[in-house]
């Protein structure tokens, strides 16, 4: 069984080998002591971190994982809003550049902020290539985007000047509806416990807590 999986989507940003740990047994954690690179592991918050700390892992974030049934989705109506697959890619990229300032890689003291920015920028480009981004529009002007993969909501970004104007609930609820219309009966997402605004937003839409996980990182060998 694979216990240490390479993550090439992160390696391309950080220029070092990157891995996801799929099993937190001591045998697997001991292997990370012999491999150079950056590691991510997700664990149950109720489990002791003693072994993780022993092998050089450090706490990075707690992720809240809410889910929403189709019948539970609350749709907020607002004049002039729409959701579309038609958008200017450069405009979406500009929004992405300012939307993800507090992700776990931005908080990782081993990762320079410009490389954390690059990770999210490349992720958005990947979703564009996969045609899994909706543009969020107000009066036909793109003010944000919504990225997804199958039944999971991945990324949500809104231009600074359109935040705190009561638009997020209406725009996001209609994007969720479009995703449901692809054939899903349940949507799920993952939100940092520190991101109170997003937690409140998705709770207002009808999402409810399903699970939580703690995320730990580790850097072995040369830095980024």
Outline:
This protein is α+β, with helices and mostly antiparallel strands and 224 residues long. The chain is built from eight helices and eleven strands.
Entry keywords:
8 helices; 33% helix; alpha+beta; 224 residues; globular; 2 domains; Aminopeptidase; single chain
Molecular structure report:
The protein has 224 residues and is α+β, with helices and mostly antiparallel strands. The chain has 2 domains: 4-61 and 213-220, no CATH class; 67-211, Aminopeptidase (3-Layer(aba) Sandwich). It has 8 helices and 11 strands. It has helices spanning 8-14, 26-32, 50-54, 89-99, 104-107, 113-129, 168-180, 196-205, and strands spanning 4-6, 18-21, 37-43, 58-69, 81-84, 133-138, 141-149, 152-158, 186-189, 191-192, 208-220. Strands 1, 2, 3, 4, 5, 6, 7, 8, 9, 10 and 11 form an 11-stranded mixed β-sheet that branches. Strand 6 and strand 7 (141-149) form a beta hairpin. Helix 1 (8-14) crosses helix 6 (113-129) and helix 7 (168-180) packs across helix 8. It is globular. The model has no long low-confidence stretch (mean pLDDT 93). This is N-acetyltransferase domain-containing protein. It comes from Virgibacillus siamensis. InterPro entries: Acyl_CoA_acyltransferase (IPR016181), GNAT_dom (IPR000182). Residues 79-224 form the N-acetyltransferase domain.
């Amino acid at each position: 069984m694979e216990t240490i999986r390479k993550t090439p989507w992160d390696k391309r940003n950080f220029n070092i080998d990157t891995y996801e740990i799929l099993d937190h047994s001591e045998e697997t954690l001991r292997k990370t002591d012999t491999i150079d690179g950056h590691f991510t592991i997700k664990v149950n918050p109720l489990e002791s971190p003693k072994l993780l700390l022993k092998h050089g892992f450090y706490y990075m974030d707690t992720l809240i994982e809410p889910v929403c049934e189709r019948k539970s989705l609350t749709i907020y109506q607002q004049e002039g809003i729409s959701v579309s697959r038609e958008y200017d890619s450069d405009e979406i990229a500009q929004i992405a550049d300012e939307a993800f300032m507090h992700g776990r890689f931005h908080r990782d003291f081993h990762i320079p902020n410009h490389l954390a920015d690059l990770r999210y920028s490349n992720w958005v480009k990947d979703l564009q290539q996969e045609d899994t981004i909706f543009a969020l529009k107000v009066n036909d002007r793109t003010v944000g985007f919504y990225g997804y993969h199958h039944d999971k909501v991945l990324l949500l970004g809104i231009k600074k000047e359109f935040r705190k104007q009561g638009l997020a609930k209406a725009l996001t609820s209609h994007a969720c509806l479009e995703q449901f219309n692809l054939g899903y009966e349940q949507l799920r997402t993952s939100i940092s416990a520190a991101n109170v605004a997003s937690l409140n937003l998705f709770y207002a839409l009808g999402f409810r807590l399903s699970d939580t996980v703690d995320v730990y990182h580790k850097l072995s060998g040369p830095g980024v």
